[in-house]
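Figure caption, in words: inputs first, then the predicted bound structure.
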Amino acid sequence: MKKAFIFDLDGVIVDTAKYHFLAWQKLAHSLGISFSEEQNEQLKGVSRVQSLEKILEWGNKTISEERFSRLMSEKNEEYLSYIAKMDAGEILPDVPRILEHLILENQAIALGSASKNARAILEKVQLYDKFNTIVDGTNVSKAKPDPEVFLLGAKALGISPENCIVFEDSVAGIKAANIANMISIGIGNQEVLHEADYVFNDFTEIKEEFINQLVATKIV
Ligand code: GL1
Ligand code: MG
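Bound structure (magnesium ion present):
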């Protein structure tokens, strides 16, 4: 069987979720809006525009369009300063092992991220060439939990959604995978990601046998 394994980027392949958090928190505080880890959980997997919209909503603030775009650029600059020195050392544990196993088993590999910085980050950590297709924030018009990002990946690979497996660290991303009719695998906290078909703390808990079972499962 040929299946497609679709990976989210931030918080799944690389530990960049923390940098997004720090950058959004700084922005929120500059507007006098408090920003908790819990709120951050709701922003994970959410596009840049929608993240800022949510923060403003939480703070009950309305701002001009011009200020909105200025704030988005500032957030991105702050984020880019964190990832400037990023290298392969920031790949999360055992991600390379799983990617290599999938390549060995001749499975399709896709990226499905809301980030507009996704391609640059994959280049930085030298994983770009492992992906058969990349769908990121520059390709989609609807943000997770809309399934667009994953459906585009499946389409590009010519594999039906039922034969796709999604790795996600965000609630929005798990919802998107479920809506797309794909198998959803949460990477992170079981309580937060309880809507996923499977949850692991990280890739070190995922055995090759588990991947092989997913590959062998026939969907009728
Ligand atoms: C956008 C948001 C981030 C994060 C990613 C998805 O990234 O700004 O906070 O939610 O989408 O993981 P970016 O700004 O790089 O397009
Ligand atoms: Mg993520």
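The chain has nine helices and six strands.
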